[in-house]
Amino acid sequence: MSQIKDYEVIVVGGGPGGLCAGMYSARARRKTVCLEKFLPGGQIALTGEVEDYLGFEHISGAELGQKFTDHAKKFGLEVEMEEVVEVYTDGDHRIARCASGDLYRAKAIILSTGGSPVKLGIPGEQEYGGRGVSYCAICDGAFFRDKVIAVVGGGDAAVEEGAYLTKYGSKVYIIHRRDELRAQKIIQQRAFANPKIEFIFDTTVETVNGDGGVIKNLSLKNLKTGAKWTLDVGALFIYVGFRPNSNLVREPLKKDEGGYIVTNDRMETSVPGIFACGDVRSQLVRQVTNAVGDGTTAAVAAEKYIEALEDRHAQRV
Ligand code: NAP
Q: Model's pTM, two decimal places?
């Protein structure tokens, strides 16, 4: 039997932004729940090492995610394992409908739903998913000890996770479609200095080939010369970007051309009572540092929104 569960604030997504929003909201004595479909910590829990979160020179993503969760819970944030399938407004209520059939009802909802890895869409990618093709180095890297590993992409994620994979692989190829990386310079420099990493520039992966059981090699194409060849690998990690999970809200929501949710500087979306923070939000930078900043602002703005709502109700009575 589905149930209606009443809260004052619902946070959808348990990444750094969502957990920080939840912590501030619970700390402001609002009954707050964070709904997370997988594991609290979000993307960060799937990141090998974090070295750019102020105060932590070196911490694993999983440990940082756990610290965020524990800290938020200490202030009274409830964390429930629920997959939210729709968010909508009903008068002054904001509703999150879950795959379980349960409805969570509150005065404000903060969306911190992050995004999902972009797929290459090439032959063999889906077939060898879980059998050599992966989107998560920390989840799957250890399966490819002493194997040759390929990584596709030229952004922070590809280069950082490529470096992380040198812990396991005998060699890591980073295959990028241009001759210039998009990753931050410090991440690039470290990768260039890593003897286990070799870059293959101006090149795309055309197909993932295997023996029907596991991946064996990749068909590559140099975009400048047109040359084609195969590269023997034991695994392929794909890091070619990120697509926002921004399609939960039933009402029309303002988004940018990339599908990211547009907010103002109070994290208010175009639907009153619905706020957005972290990677799902349209902004220049997608780091843990600004996700927690967004989460803080969203929680405080949601609190002000609820106070104004309560004042209006009190005046009516
Ligand atoms: P990203 O910065 O968008 O980079 C995606 C990379 O994939 C680009 O190099 C792009 O090539 C390449 N690419 C895209 N489509 C491709 C295709 N079809 N075939 C081959 N290559 C393709 O994505 P990201 O690295 O996942 O990072 C996402 C966000 O998270 C960024 O804002 C990033 O700063 C942040 N992040 C930060 C850290 C960190 O600071 N430690 C770690 C991970 C992620 P082009 O360069 O040619 O466009």
A: 0.85
